[in-house]
């Protein structure tokens, strides 16, 4: 996701592969703490930023164009879906429509 985002903001640049990577957190709720301390950047869904307590300590970039991913609903053909999974799929279809 970061590669796609950065390529839209900085076309012609080498991309995320040339940026040093150091990480020690893999929980969405904790990722923004090191960012707030000035230890780098991250690409997260908006809800993660909204849930972060120290809003004033981070800068959010807004883009001219949204980066949008396709949502695929897949399941194994040989396994029947549970009632809960069928309900979730139908709910998502109703909410998202044919986008």
Which structural traits does this protein have?
99 residues; mainly alpha; 4 helices; 0% strand
Summed up:
The chain is mainly α and 99 residues long. It is 33% helix and 0% strand.
Detail the poorly predicted runs. Answer: none
Oligomer: single chain
Strand content: under 5%
Along the chain, the helix and strand elements come as: HHHH
- Helix share bin: 25-40%
Overall strand count: 0
State the major sheet.
none
What best-fitting shape do the alpha-carbon axes yield? extended
Average the pLDDT over all residues and give the rounded result: 82
Number of helices: 4
The assigned structural class equals: mainly alpha
Q: In angstroms, what is the radius of gyration?
A: 18 Å
Q: What is the rounded distance between the termini?
A: 20 Å
């Amino acid at each position: 996701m970061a590669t796609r985002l950065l390529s839209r903001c900085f076309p012609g640049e080498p991309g995320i592969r040339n940026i040093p990577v150091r990480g020690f957190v893999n929980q969405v709720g904790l990722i923004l703490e090191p960012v707030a301390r000035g230890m780098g950047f991250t690409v997260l869904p908006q809800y993660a930023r909204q849930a972060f307590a120290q809003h004033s300590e981070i800068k959010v970039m807004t883009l001219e164009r949204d980066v949008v991913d396709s949502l695929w609903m897949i399941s194994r053909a040989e396994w029947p879906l549970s009632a809960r999974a069928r309900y979730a799929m139908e709910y998502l279809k109703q909410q998202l429509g044919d986008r």
